[in-house]
Amino acid sequence: MSIEQAYNNWASQYDTNKNRTRDLEGKALRATLASIPFETCLEIGAGTGKNTEWLMRKAMLVTAVDLSEEMLKRARKKVNSNKVEFIQADITKDWDFKTQEYDLVSFSLVLEHIENLEHIFKEAAAALKPGGHVYIGELHPFKQYTGTKARFDTEEGRQEVECYTHHISDFSQAAKQCGFKLVDVNEYFDDNNRNDIPRILTLLFQKSST
Ligand SMILES: C[S@@+](CC[C@H](N)C(=O)[O-])C[C@H]1O[C@@H](n2cnc3c(N)ncnc32)[C@H](O)[C@@H]1O
Protein backbone atom coordinates (compact mmCIF):
# COMPACT_ATOMS: atom_id res chain seq x y z
CA MET A 1 0.00 0.00 0.00
CA SER A 2 1.35 3.47 -0.84
CA ILE A 3 2.16 5.91 1.98
CA GLU A 4 -0.61 8.22 0.72
CA GLN A 5 -3.19 5.41 0.80
CA ALA A 6 -2.01 4.25 4.23
CA TYR A 7 -2.52 7.72 5.75
CA ASN A 8 -5.86 8.14 3.97
CA ASN A 9 -6.90 4.93 5.75
CA TRP A 10 -5.32 5.89 9.09
CA ALA A 11 -6.83 9.41 9.16
CA SER A 12 -10.17 8.52 10.80
CA GLN A 13 -8.42 7.02 13.85
CA TYR A 14 -5.14 9.00 13.88
CA ASP A 15 -6.23 11.49 16.55
CA THR A 16 -8.03 9.04 18.82
CA ASN A 17 -5.83 5.92 18.95
CA LYS A 18 -3.33 5.51 21.78
CA ASN A 19 -0.12 6.80 20.22
CA ARG A 20 2.78 7.75 22.50
CA THR A 21 4.96 8.85 19.59
CA ARG A 22 2.35 11.33 18.32
CA ASP A 23 1.78 12.77 21.80
CA LEU A 24 5.41 13.01 22.91
CA GLU A 25 6.45 14.68 19.65
CA GLY A 26 3.80 17.35 20.26
CA LYS A 27 5.41 18.13 23.62
CA ALA A 28 8.90 18.07 22.10
CA LEU A 29 7.96 20.56 19.36
CA ARG A 30 6.47 22.99 21.88
CA ALA A 31 9.52 22.74 24.16
CA THR A 32 12.00 23.17 21.30
CA LEU A 33 10.28 26.08 19.58
CA ALA A 34 8.98 27.99 22.63
CA SER A 35 11.95 30.38 22.60
CA ILE A 36 12.43 30.55 18.81
CA PRO A 37 10.72 33.56 17.23
CA PHE A 38 9.02 33.07 13.84
CA GLU A 39 6.38 34.94 11.88
CA THR A 40 6.07 32.55 8.96
CA CYS A 41 6.16 28.77 9.08
CA LEU A 42 6.15 26.02 6.48
CA GLU A 43 4.79 22.95 8.28
CA ILE A 44 5.72 19.82 6.37
CA GLY A 45 3.63 16.67 6.94
CA ALA A 46 1.02 18.59 8.92
CA GLY A 47 -1.26 15.54 9.08
CA THR A 48 -4.45 16.14 11.05
CA GLY A 49 -3.10 19.45 12.39
CA LYS A 50 -1.77 18.24 15.75
CA ASN A 51 0.82 21.04 15.80
CA THR A 52 -0.75 23.49 13.34
CA GLU A 53 -2.82 25.41 15.86
CA TRP A 54 0.14 25.93 18.21
CA LEU A 55 2.35 27.09 15.30
CA MET A 56 -0.43 29.40 14.10
CA ARG A 57 -0.68 31.07 17.52
CA LYS A 58 3.02 32.02 17.35
CA ALA A 59 3.09 32.90 13.64
CA MET A 60 1.37 35.35 11.31
CA LEU A 61 1.17 32.73 8.56
CA VAL A 62 1.46 28.94 8.35
CA THR A 63 1.62 26.98 5.08
CA ALA A 64 0.70 23.43 6.10
CA VAL A 65 1.53 20.72 3.57
CA ASP A 66 0.64 17.03 3.52
CA LEU A 67 0.44 14.14 1.06
CA SER A 68 -2.83 12.73 2.40
CA GLU A 69 -6.07 14.52 1.56
CA GLU A 70 -7.90 12.58 4.32
CA MET A 71 -5.41 13.75 6.98
CA LEU A 72 -5.73 17.32 5.69
CA LYS A 73 -9.54 17.13 5.76
CA ARG A 74 -9.34 16.62 9.52
CA ALA A 75 -6.77 19.39 9.94
CA ARG A 76 -9.00 21.83 8.04
CA LYS A 77 -11.88 21.02 10.41
CA LYS A 78 -9.67 21.47 13.49
CA VAL A 79 -7.92 24.68 12.44
CA ASN A 80 -10.17 27.43 11.24
CA SER A 81 -8.03 30.50 10.59
CA ASN A 82 -7.15 32.67 7.63
CA LYS A 83 -3.55 32.61 8.92
CA VAL A 84 -3.25 28.96 7.77
CA GLU A 85 -3.34 27.55 4.27
CA PHE A 86 -3.45 23.78 3.78
CA ILE A 87 -1.90 22.33 0.64
CA GLN A 88 -1.89 18.74 -0.61
CA ALA A 89 1.57 17.95 -2.03
CA ASP A 90 4.33 15.36 -2.15
CA ILE A 91 7.57 16.72 -0.67
CA THR A 92 9.69 14.20 -2.58
CA LYS A 93 8.86 16.28 -5.68
CA ASP A 94 9.76 19.95 -6.35
CA TRP A 95 8.44 22.25 -3.59
CA ASP A 96 6.29 24.43 -5.82
CA PHE A 97 3.84 24.90 -2.93
CA LYS A 98 6.00 27.59 -1.25
CA THR A 99 4.22 30.93 -1.17
CA GLN A 100 7.16 32.97 0.20
CA GLU A 101 10.44 32.65 2.15
CA TYR A 102 9.80 31.35 5.70
CA ASP A 103 11.34 31.84 9.16
CA LEU A 104 10.75 28.19 10.10
CA VAL A 105 10.35 24.87 8.28
CA SER A 106 9.02 22.15 10.60
CA PHE A 107 8.96 18.38 10.16
CA SER A 108 7.05 16.29 12.70
CA LEU A 109 7.13 12.50 12.27
CA VAL A 110 7.34 12.76 8.49
CA LEU A 111 11.00 12.21 7.53
CA GLU A 112 10.82 8.52 8.48
CA HIS A 113 8.68 8.18 5.32
CA ILE A 114 11.23 9.92 3.09
CA GLU A 115 14.19 8.04 1.64
CA ASN A 116 16.26 10.91 0.22
CA LEU A 117 17.09 13.48 2.91
CA GLU A 118 19.40 15.51 0.63
CA HIS A 119 16.49 16.59 -1.56
CA ILE A 120 14.52 17.64 1.53
CA PHE A 121 17.28 19.75 3.07
CA LYS A 122 18.00 21.37 -0.32
CA GLU A 123 14.35 22.38 -0.68
CA ALA A 124 14.13 23.49 2.98
CA ALA A 125 17.21 25.71 2.52
CA ALA A 126 15.62 27.30 -0.57
CA ALA A 127 12.36 27.86 1.34
CA LEU A 128 13.99 29.66 4.29
CA LYS A 129 15.02 33.24 4.89
CA PRO A 130 18.68 33.76 5.92
CA GLY A 131 18.96 32.83 9.62
CA GLY A 132 15.75 30.75 9.45
CA HIS A 133 15.35 27.47 11.37
CA VAL A 134 14.54 23.86 10.53
CA TYR A 135 12.85 21.85 13.31
CA ILE A 136 12.81 18.05 13.08
CA GLY A 137 10.90 15.85 15.56
CA GLU A 138 11.19 12.18 14.66
CA LEU A 139 10.72 8.71 16.06
CA HIS A 140 14.21 8.20 17.54
CA PRO A 141 16.38 5.92 15.37
CA PHE A 142 17.18 3.87 18.51
CA LYS A 143 13.46 2.99 18.63
CA GLN A 144 13.50 2.16 14.94
CA TYR A 145 16.46 -0.21 15.53
CA THR A 146 14.20 -2.19 17.91
CA GLY A 147 11.49 -2.50 15.24
CA THR A 148 9.11 0.30 16.23
CA LYS A 149 7.47 1.92 13.19
CA ALA A 150 4.38 3.82 12.09
CA ARG A 151 1.48 1.35 12.20
CA PHE A 152 -2.24 1.16 12.89
CA ASP A 153 -4.88 -1.54 13.28
CA THR A 154 -7.80 -2.11 10.93
CA GLU A 155 -10.47 -4.82 10.65
CA GLU A 156 -8.21 -6.47 8.05
CA GLY A 157 -5.31 -6.54 10.53
CA ARG A 158 -2.28 -4.43 11.36
CA GLN A 159 -1.09 -2.00 8.64
CA GLU A 160 2.52 -0.84 8.62
CA VAL A 161 3.48 2.30 6.73
CA GLU A 162 6.62 2.28 4.55
CA CYS A 163 9.50 3.69 6.63
CA TYR A 164 13.21 4.43 6.32
CA THR A 165 15.67 4.53 9.20
CA HIS A 166 17.79 7.68 9.28
CA HIS A 167 20.69 7.66 11.72
CA ILE A 168 21.41 10.87 13.62
CA SER A 169 24.50 11.43 11.44
CA ASP A 170 22.34 11.08 8.29
CA PHE A 171 20.33 14.12 9.39
CA SER A 172 23.35 16.14 10.47
CA GLN A 173 25.40 15.38 7.35
CA ALA A 174 22.55 16.12 4.93
CA ALA A 175 21.86 19.38 6.75
CA LYS A 176 25.56 20.37 6.78
CA GLN A 177 25.84 19.80 3.03
CA CYS A 178 23.03 22.33 2.55
CA GLY A 179 24.70 24.98 4.72
CA PHE A 180 22.82 24.42 7.99
CA LYS A 181 24.41 24.42 11.42
CA LEU A 182 23.04 22.33 14.29
CA VAL A 183 21.86 24.57 17.14
CA ASP A 184 19.98 22.10 19.36
CA VAL A 185 19.57 18.35 19.78
CA ASN A 186 17.39 16.63 22.35
CA GLU A 187 15.83 13.28 23.25
CA TYR A 188 12.46 12.57 24.86
CA PHE A 189 11.65 9.47 26.88
CA ASP A 190 8.41 7.67 27.83
CA ASP A 191 7.40 8.81 31.32
CA ASN A 192 10.61 10.87 31.37
CA ASN A 193 12.50 7.65 32.16
CA ARG A 194 16.05 8.29 30.99
CA ASN A 195 17.03 4.65 31.64
CA ASP A 196 14.75 3.67 28.76
CA ILE A 197 15.40 3.94 25.00
CA PRO A 198 14.48 7.48 23.91
CA ARG A 199 11.28 7.70 21.83
CA ILE A 200 11.65 11.09 20.15
CA LEU A 201 14.69 12.82 18.66
CA THR A 202 14.57 16.57 18.02
CA LEU A 203 17.05 18.51 15.93
CA LEU A 204 17.09 22.25 15.37
CA PHE A 205 19.18 23.61 12.49
CA GLN A 206 19.79 27.19 11.42
CA LYS A 207 20.48 28.50 7.94
CA SER A 208 23.43 30.88 7.69
CA SER A 209 22.35 34.52 8.07
CA THR A 210 24.50 35.75 5.14
C1 LIG B 1 2.88 10.26 11.40
S1 LIG B 1 2.04 11.48 10.45
C2 LIG B 1 2.51 12.96 11.32
C3 LIG B 1 1.45 14.02 11.24
C4 LIG B 1 1.70 15.22 12.16
N1 LIG B 1 2.87 15.96 11.75
C5 LIG B 1 1.84 14.74 13.58
O1 LIG B 1 2.93 14.91 14.15
O2 LIG B 1 0.87 14.20 14.12
C6 LIG B 1 3.05 11.60 8.98
C7 LIG B 1 2.44 12.53 7.94
O3 LIG B 1 3.39 12.70 6.89
C8 LIG B 1 2.70 12.75 5.65
N2 LIG B 1 3.60 12.38 4.56
C9 LIG B 1 4.21 11.20 4.37
N3 LIG B 1 4.93 11.23 3.23
C10 LIG B 1 4.78 12.49 2.71
C11 LIG B 1 5.25 13.13 1.52
N4 LIG B 1 6.03 12.48 0.64
N5 LIG B 1 4.88 14.42 1.29
C12 LIG B 1 4.08 15.08 2.17
N6 LIG B 1 3.60 14.51 3.32
C13 LIG B 1 3.94 13.23 3.57
C14 LIG B 1 1.56 11.73 5.84
O4 LIG B 1 0.51 11.91 4.92
C15 LIG B 1 1.16 11.97 7.30
O5 LIG B 1 0.11 12.89 7.43
Automatic annotation (TrEMBL):
<feature type="domain" description="Methyltransferase type 11">
    <location>
        <begin position="42"/>
        <end position="136"/>
    </location>
</feature>
<dbReference type="InterPro" id="IPR013216">
    <property type="entry name" value="Methyltransf_11"/>
</dbReference>
<dbReference type="Pfam" id="PF08241">
    <property type="entry name" value="Methyltransf_11"/>
</dbReference>
<keyword id="KW-0489">Methyltransferase</keyword>
<dbReference type="InterPro" id="IPR029063">
    <property type="entry name" value="SAM-dependent_MTases_sf"/>
</dbReference>
<dbReference type="GO" id="GO:0008757">
    <property type="term" value="F:S-adenosylmethionine-dependent methyltransferase activity"/>
</dbReference>
<keyword id="KW-0808">Transferase</keyword>
<dbReference type="GO" id="GO:0032259">
    <property type="term" value="P:methylation"/>
</dbReference>
<protein>
    <submittedName>
        <fullName>Class I SAM-dependent methyltransferase</fullName>
    </submittedName>
</protein>
